[in-house]
Amino acid sequence: MKIYTRKGDSGKTGVFGGKREFKDAPRIECIGTLDEVNSTIGLLRSKLGNDHEWQPNLHRVQKDMMNMMSHLARPSDSKKENQNPHPTDGAEFCEAWIDEMESKMSSPSDYFLLPGGNEISALCHVCRTQVRRGERTLVTLSHEDPESVLDYISSYINRLSDLFFTMARSEMDKHGVAEEKWNLFLYKRKKKPQA
């Protein structure tokens, strides 16, 4: 079987259930952005090496991303059911991992940071910003087809950006790389005394 079908030459692509949508439709934009995230996670994993402690969790995230993309590809009016698993505990999984990493760091997370540090932490920030873009496209899709954007997907994607921020900090902390701080988080800023 050939990898190319020529069916997409007209600017449309197939979605779950057999319908075809334009390649710039919100659903396709959303799935494509999350696919970019998944590819960047793959690049991050290749830089980490096979024995790195993050590998099992990142492997799980990649598989969860594939499952979520498959469910987002199913329009809510599709009669065909998607049998792929629903990673409904994704947000909790991210929170547990974030808490574990933060418990081992030498300082709390109080500041917006300039992305960078070393190659791994910079790649974590690339993942973080791509996830944020994916979240924006998810919101756009939810306006068009609210029932196809399940609550657990929104929560998981939202938590992933926090996860990659924490991973960037963890990597820098582990290697003694100083954070380039910008501003305190808004909720951490002290109120000015009233005159």
From TrEMBL:
The keyword Transferase applies. Residues 3-170 form the Cobalamin adenosyltransferase-like domain. GO terms for molecular function: ATP binding; corrinoid adenosyltransferase activity. Keywords: ATP-binding, Cobalamin biosynthesis, Nucleotide-binding, Transferase. Pfam families: Cob_adeno_trans. GO terms for biological process: cobalamin biosynthetic process. The keyword Transferase applies. InterPro entries: CblAdoTrfase-like (IPR016030), CblAdoTrfase-like_sf (IPR036451), PduO-typ (IPR029499). Gene3D superfamilies: Cobalamin adenosyltransferase-like. Belongs to the Cob(I)alamin adenosyltransferase family. This is Corrinoid adenosyltransferase.
